[in-house]
Recover the amino acids of this structure.
């Protein structure tokens, strides 16, 4: 017994869509489509909004953990594309669940946010005697995108608890270094504020300037090192080697990226269940938890296994170790 | 697994930056509120960088000591959709550090202080943690009004150090009333209404009160909800309200703080309140109040201070600090 993940609740939309359809709509070249190796994703209908998916996944997580909403002490949530900007998504979850005793907060970020959320939860469960159950909710609805992978819609919630008897959190490491900011939305902040004359053609994504030159020179050559380092440090701190890990779960990029990273870590490619990319694409940081649940259900993970997890995004890198 | 340390963690310093330019705004009750205002020549990160450097200077340490940094994401940065905590660390000159951006509606830095302190308590290898916020409302509000509050600009960064015995946060209690999630937000820029040119040109990308009924309802409940957190914090610290020498109250408006003080029969002479002088600065305002606390002549070594933050966003926090 110890601090660990008591349950994983997953809520996915009803519809699955072939990625060939999305690729055609987006004008994605065939060689890139082939390289992504993802053939279908879940895509939400308008009534399956981020909150609905998030609340449903949270209900499943509470039921699986066999705790009531009133027993939740802290709710930490993330939804990059939440219903409104600078809105308390976590407080809405609290209201919908009736988790009246939970303090709530949102963590801002993209795929990286789940790492920061687990960091806070892990600190709080160790430091605060009055906190026993932390509900973590990640929901995202950004389907249609094709970078760095086909983006799927879906939500995942976990209950991180003090007295779990599975998925014990053994070690946790976050790394953020001084790295270049690659994507910048120049207009709309306090430096270049919006005015009535602002030209803003298309969506947010179409207005972001991505510095490909910096990426190629300052990030790409080191990307496997950067992605691997947090897990390697977590192993060092725990006193094991990466080879001792039975399975490694990671945020979905291209399937070849997962396999190359395994090579970089010096372990066989089948240590990571990269085949899930084919049927799901990339949800967000919660790829790690959703595929962990699927791997348990599919019998790819057995009791006592040591599991490595890698979350990254926005130049933040997380590595942590679980014991099933 | 790490073991919790018994080494004390104390507030070492608070770095502060407030703009020199002040403007006056009329409050709904007819009084006038002067607040510091920034513009595009004095950006969010410029203010935050100055506050960060001020905290380092006051603590007499350099950037190599910055190990953990919690940023309150409740105003607008130089650019939208950035990882603000990392961007700010880059500007200050900090390389590797543990950092994240949290959001709790606009008054969250007391919870951020708890996270900073607890991180130091359970991570033996970490000694220094920082909590920062920077408020800049010139371009993303309705003429700086947020309900009955006037939004002021400025930044503050608090530094907590393991081994520092002064200003120890003995206890903490918080409460979220989730029903009030829909009071403050931007209608534009999320899943429901994506950010597009038409909304920008119409000036709709602003943070404001949307559910006025809930806002007014919560104003009536805020003092009681905050009092509940204070009672819990006092209990956890094993002390009583009569032992408190100073009450640091941070809320939307001075009148809400007065309402709270009146309900608990706290004499005015024991209250430290900063909204009257600076307007509502959100999380940065709470940290600014901690800076004022550290130099307040009404307290001395061994005094007890209650810090209470009353958010009109459904979040309430209290902490008992031993000087």
């Amino acid at each position: 017994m110890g601090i660990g993940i008591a349950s994983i609740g997953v809520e996915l939309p009803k519809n699955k869509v072939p990625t060939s359809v999305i690729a055609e709509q987006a004008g994605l070249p065939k060689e890139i489509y082939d390289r992504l190796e993802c053939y279908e994703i879940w895509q939400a209908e308008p009534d399956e909004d981020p909150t609905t998916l998030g609340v449903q996944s949270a209900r499943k997580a509470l039921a699986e953990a066999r705790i009531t909403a009133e027993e939740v002490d802290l709710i930490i949530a993330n939804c990059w594309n939440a219903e409104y900007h600078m809105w308390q998504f976590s407080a809405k979850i609290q209201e919908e669940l009736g988790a009246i005793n939970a303090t709530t907060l949102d963590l801002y970020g993209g795929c990286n946010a789940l790492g920061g959320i687990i960091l806070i939860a892990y600190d709080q469960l160790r430091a605060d005697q009055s906190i026993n159950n932390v509900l973590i909710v990640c929901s995202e609805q950004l389907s249609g995108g094709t970078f760095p992978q086909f983006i799927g819609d879906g939500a995942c919630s976990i209950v991180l608890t003090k007295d779990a008897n599975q998925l014990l959190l053994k070690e946790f490491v976050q790394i953020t270094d001084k790295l270049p900011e690659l994507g910048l939305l120049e207009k709309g902040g306090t430096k270049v504020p919006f005015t009535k004359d602002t030209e803003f053609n298309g969506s947010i994504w179409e207005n972001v300037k991505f510095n490909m030159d910096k990426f190629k020179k300052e990030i790409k050559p080191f990307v496997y090192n950067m992605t691997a380092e947090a897990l390697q440090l977590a192993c060092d701190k725990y006193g094991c080697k990466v080879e001792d890990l039975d399975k490694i779960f990671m945020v979905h990029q291209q399937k070849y990226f997962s396999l190359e990273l395994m090579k970089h870590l010096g372990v066989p490619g089948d240590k990571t269940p990269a085949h899930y990319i084919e049927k799901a694409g990339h949800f967000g940081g919660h790829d790690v938890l959703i595929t962990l649940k699927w791997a348990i259900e599919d019998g790819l993970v057995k009791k006592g296994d040591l599991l490595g997890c890698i979350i990254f995004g926005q130049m933040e890198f997380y590595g942590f170790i679980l014991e099933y | 697994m790490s073991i919790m340390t018994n080494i004390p963690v104390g507030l070492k310093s608070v770095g502060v930056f407030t703009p020199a330019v002040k403007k006056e705004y009329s409050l709904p009750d007819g009084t006038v509120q002067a607040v510091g205002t920034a513009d595009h020549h004095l950006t969010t990160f410029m203010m935050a960088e100055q506050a960060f450097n001020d905290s380092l200077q006051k603590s007499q340490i350099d950037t190599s000591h910055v190990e953990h940094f919690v940023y309150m994401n409740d105003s607008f940065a130089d650019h939208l959709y950035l990882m603000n905590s990392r961007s700010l660390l880059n500007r200050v000159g900090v390389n590797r550090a543990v950092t994240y951006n949290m959001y709790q509606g606009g008054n969250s830095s007391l919870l951020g202080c708890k996270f900073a302190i607890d991180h130091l308590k359970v991570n033996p290898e970490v000694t220094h943690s920082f909590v920062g916020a920077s408020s800049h409302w010139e371009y993303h509000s309705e003429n700086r009004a947020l309900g009955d509050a006037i939004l002021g600009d400025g930044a503050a960064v608090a530094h907590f150090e393991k081994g520092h015995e002064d200003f120890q946060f003995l206890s903490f209690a918080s409460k979220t009333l989730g029903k009030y999630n829909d009071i403050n937000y931007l209608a534009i820029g999320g899943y429901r209404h994506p950010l597009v040119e038409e909304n920008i040109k119409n000036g709709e990308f602003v943070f404001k009160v949307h559910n006025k009924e809930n806002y007014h309802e919560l104003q009536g409940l805020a003092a009681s909800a905050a009092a509940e957190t204070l009672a819990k914090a006092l209990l956890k610290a094993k002390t009583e309200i009569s032992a408190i020498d100073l009450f640091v109250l941070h809320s939307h408006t001075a009148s809400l703080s007065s309402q709270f003080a009146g309900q608990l029969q706290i004499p005015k002479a024991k209250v430290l309140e900063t909204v009257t002088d600076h307007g509502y600065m959100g999380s940065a305002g709470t940290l600014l109040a901690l800076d004022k606390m550290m130099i307040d002549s009404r307290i001395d070594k061994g005094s007890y201070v209650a810090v209470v933050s009353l958010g009109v966003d459904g979040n309430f926090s209290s902490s008992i600090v031993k000087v």
About this structure: Chain B touches chain A through 78 residues (CB under 8 Å). The mean pLDDT of chain B is 95. The longest strand of chain B covers residues 9-17.
